[in-house]
């Protein structure tokens, strides 16, 4: 009996996530057809990346990232923030109108011209996760005087 419940819970979670992805994809389509963003480079890839990141941190699957979700995001990005800092970040993105970031605000923040703390952190996330390239070829020859 326990195994059945776990299986059903997994299926229910999968269905919930699939429904969420459909809703977010509908919002993405709005941005793809919006004249404001027609000149944006690689907009489809950016929107897909936004959708994946948003789904990962929408903890309650209600269509927004609340304070705990944003706090987890910052910790995962290696930039832990206090509750007060997270509240300020949410207020900055939402204009103080909400205590959670909806998907539209999330996209506007990432695609918009105005910088925000969250946007800057997320821009550098990819750079921080890149593996540095090792130099090719043999190492340069050194003599004893060049050693520290």
Give a verbal description of the structure.
There is one protein chain. A two-stranded antiparallel ribbon has the order 1-2. With 148 residues, the chain is an all-alpha fold. The protein contains 6 helices and 2 strands. It is 61% helix and 3% strand. The N terminus is likely disordered.
Order of helices and strands: HHEHHEHH
The 3D shape can be described as: extended
What is the count of β-strands? 2
Which percent bin holds the helix content? 55-70%
How are strands sequenced across the largest beta sheet?
1-2
Cα gyration radius (Å): 21 Å
Runs in which pLDDT lies below 50 for 5 or more consecutive residues are 1-7
Coarse structural class: mainly alpha
- The count of helical stretches stands at 6
> Strand percentage, roughly?
under 5%
Largest sheet: 2 strands, antiparallel
User: N-to-C terminal Cα separation, in Å?
Assistant: 68 Å
Mean pLDDT: 79
Topology of this structure?
Elements: H1 2-33, H2 43-57, E1 64-65, H3 67-76, H4 83-94, E2 101-102, H5 103-111, H6 117-129
Antiparallel strand pairs: 1-2
């Amino acid at each position: 009996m326990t195994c059945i419940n776990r299986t059903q819970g997994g299926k229910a979670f999968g269905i919930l996530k699939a429904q969420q992805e459909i809703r977010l994809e509908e919002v993405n389509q709005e941005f793809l057809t919006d004249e404001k963003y027609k000149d944006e480079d690689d907009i489809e890839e950016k929107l897909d990346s936004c959708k994946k990141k948003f789904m990962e941190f929408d903890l309650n699957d209600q269509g927004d990232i609340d304070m705990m979700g944003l706090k987890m995001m910052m910790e995962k990005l290696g930039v832990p923030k206090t509750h007060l800092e997270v509240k300020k970040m949410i207020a900055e993105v939402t204009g103080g109108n909400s205590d959670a970031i909806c998907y539209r605000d999330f996209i506007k923040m990432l695609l918009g011209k105005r910088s925000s703390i969250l946007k800057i952190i997320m821009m550098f996330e990819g750079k921080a996760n890149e593996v540095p390239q090792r130099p090719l070829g043999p190492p340069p020859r050194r003599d004893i005087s060049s050693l520290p």
